[in-house]
Amino acid sequence: MARAKVNQNKNLETYRDIWIIVEQREGKIHPVTTELIGEGRRLADLSGKKLYAVAAGYGIEEELEKLLRYEIDQILYIRHPLLETFSTDGYVKAIAGLIEKLKPEIVLSGATSIGRDITPRIAARVGTGLTADCTKLDIDETDGKLLMTRPAFGGNLMATIVCPNNRPQMSTVRPGVMERARVREHAYGKLVEVNPDLCADDIRVRFRETIRREKKAVNLTEAKVIVSGGRGVKGEEGFRLIRSLADALRGEVGASRAAVEAGFIDSGHQVGQTGTTVRPELYVACGISGAIQHLAGMEESKCIVAINKDPNAPIFKACDYGIVGDLNEVIPALIEEIKSREADGV
Ligand SMILES: Cc1cc2nc3c(=O)[nH]c(=O)nc-3n(C[C@H](O)[C@H](O)[C@H](O)COP(=O)(O)OP(=O)(O)OC[C@H]3O[C@@H](n4cnc5c(N)ncnc54)[C@H](O)[C@@H]3O)c2cc1C
Question: Which domains does the chain have, with CATH numbers?
Answer without folding.
Answer: 12-202 (3.40.50.620), 225-343 (3.40.50.1220)
